[in-house]
């Protein structure tokens, strides 16, 4: 039950910065909106354009049709957009055979990892991909090369037990949305066993993942609980929750919407940390703050870890130069 304003207990909300949308997500959503504006409905999108239910439902209402595979698209000559996570090479090849108009919204930082893997392969190296099985980005990166060319390693233990075909011809790449600390442990385990292993010049974990984890590390030790706004299938959001728990926050939850808050778990707190994964829009953060403000006398403080302005990726060429409606 809501209390009157005078009786509300105080709550300090510590808002992590940066949080929420990254440049790759903005580009992917803009790509769908501009494709709808340029080509009209329906526009097909293979897989959730980004892992956020609110975003997907908003685009669905505007005319996007989400499918998991191209064989669910009944027509020829219609646009199909590949999600920000990237796709195996077989997918654009199939789109070409079907005469679909393929528009690639793969984040350029994922494409960069694809190119790295191809370069290692051309240099005769066996490739270790550090990542999580089943995530579409991992499926996409492994699918840049023939089966067996890229081998998945998920943990430091797996790295310790990895058997290379030729230890002198080995390279690693990573998923972009991993835990910075876990990945450092896995890379260390690989380097301890294979000192000549080739790796990225600058790491593959993207700036957005790194910066959002850094902000959570600042806030986690000084709050009673942390809410990460994001979807359960969002890798970078899941990692933010883990980072909060590992850095001294006694309770952390990943929530999609304010309506998902279990108030029994947030009853006796004085300080709440709040952040959002890279695919979660700011409106959902505002919704959560409003919900707490109905029950607490909320005082919001932004805790900034890294300045992140001015990062922008150009749109796919098929939809450049035309504003979305
Ligand atoms: S989280 Fe990183 S890799 Fe993924 S879309 Fe955003 S910027 Fe690109």
3D structure, described in words:
- The chain is α/β, with parallel strands linked by helices and 325 residues long.
- Helix content is 35%, strand content 19%.
- The chain contains 10 helices and 12 strands.
- Strands 10-9-11-1-12 form a 5-stranded parallel beta sheet, sandwiched between helices. Strands 3-2-4-5 form a 4-stranded parallel beta sheet, with helices on both faces.
- Helix 8 (207-219) runs parallel beside helix 9 (235-246).
- The site of iron/sulfur cluster has 15 residues, from helix 1, helix 4 and helix 8.
How would the blueprint of this fold be written?
Elements: E1 10-17, H1 23-39, E2 43-46, H2 53-62, E3 64-67, E4 79-82, H3 90-97, E5 101-104, H4 108-122, E6 126-130, H5 136-142, E7 150-153, H6 156-160, E8 170-174, H7 180-193, H8 207-219, E9 225-229, H9 235-246, E10 252-255, E11 271-276, H10 282-293, E12 297-304
Parallel strand pairs: 1-11, 1-12, 2-3, 2-4, 4-5, 6-7, 6-8, 9-10, 9-11
Helix pairs in contact: 8-9
Bound molecules: iron/sulfur cluster.
- Estimate what percentage of residues fall within beta strands: 15-25%
Contiguous low-pLDDT stretches (5 residues minimum) are none
- Strand-and-helix sequence, N→C? EHEHEEHEHEHEHEHHEHEEHE
Major sheet attributes: 5 strands, parallel
Number of strands: 12
Number of helical stretches of at least 4 residues: 10
What is the average per-residue confidence, as pLDDT, rounded to a whole number? 95
Taking all Cα atoms into account, the compactness measure Rg is 21 Å
Helix content: 25-40%
The unique ligands bound to this protein are: iron/sulfur cluster
Structural class: alpha/beta
The separation of the N and C termini measures 42 Å
Shape: flat
Task: Give the strand line-up of the largest sheet.
Answer: 10-9-11-1-12
């Amino acid at each position: 039950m809501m209390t009157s304003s005078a009786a509300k207990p105080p709550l300090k909300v510590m808002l992590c910065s940066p949080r929420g949308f990254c440049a790759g997500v903005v580009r992917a959503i803009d790509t769908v909106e501009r494709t709808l504006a340029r080509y009209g409905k329906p526009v097909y999108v293979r897989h959730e354009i980004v892992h956020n239910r609110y975003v997907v439902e908003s685009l669905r209402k505007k005319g996007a049709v989400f499918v998991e595979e191209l064989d669910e698209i009944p027509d020829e000559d219609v646009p199909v957009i590949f999600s920000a996570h990237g796709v195996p090479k077989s997918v654009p090849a199939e789109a070409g055979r079907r005469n679909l108009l393929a528009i690639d919204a793969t984040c350029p930082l994922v494409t960069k990892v694809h190119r790295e893997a191809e370069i290692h392969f051309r240099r005769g190296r066996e490739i270790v991909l550090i990542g999580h099985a089943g995530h579409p980005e991992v499926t996409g990166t492994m699918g840049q090369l023939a089966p067996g060319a890229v081998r998945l390693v998920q943990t430091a233990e797996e790295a310790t037990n990895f058997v290379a075909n030729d230890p002198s011809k080995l390279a690693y790449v990573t998923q972009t949305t991993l835990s910075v600390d876990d990945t450092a442990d896995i890379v260390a385990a690989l380097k301890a066993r294979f000192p000549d292993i080739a790796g990225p010049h600058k790491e593959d974990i993207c700036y957005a993942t790194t910066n959002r984890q850094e902000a959570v590390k600042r806030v986690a030790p000084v709050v009673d609980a942390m809410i990460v706004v994001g979807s359960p299938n969002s890798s970078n959001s899941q990692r933010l929750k883990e980072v909060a728990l590992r850095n001294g926050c006694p309770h952390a939850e990943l929530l999609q919407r304010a309506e998902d808050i279990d108030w029994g778990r947030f009853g006796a707190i004085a300080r709440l940390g709040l952040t959002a994964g890279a695919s979660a829009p700011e409106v959902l953060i505002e919704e959560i703050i409003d919900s707490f403000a109905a029950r607490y006398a909320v005082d919001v403080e932004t805790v900034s870890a890294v300045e992140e302005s001015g990062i922008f990726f150009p749109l796919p060429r098929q939809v450049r130069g035309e504003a979305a409606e």
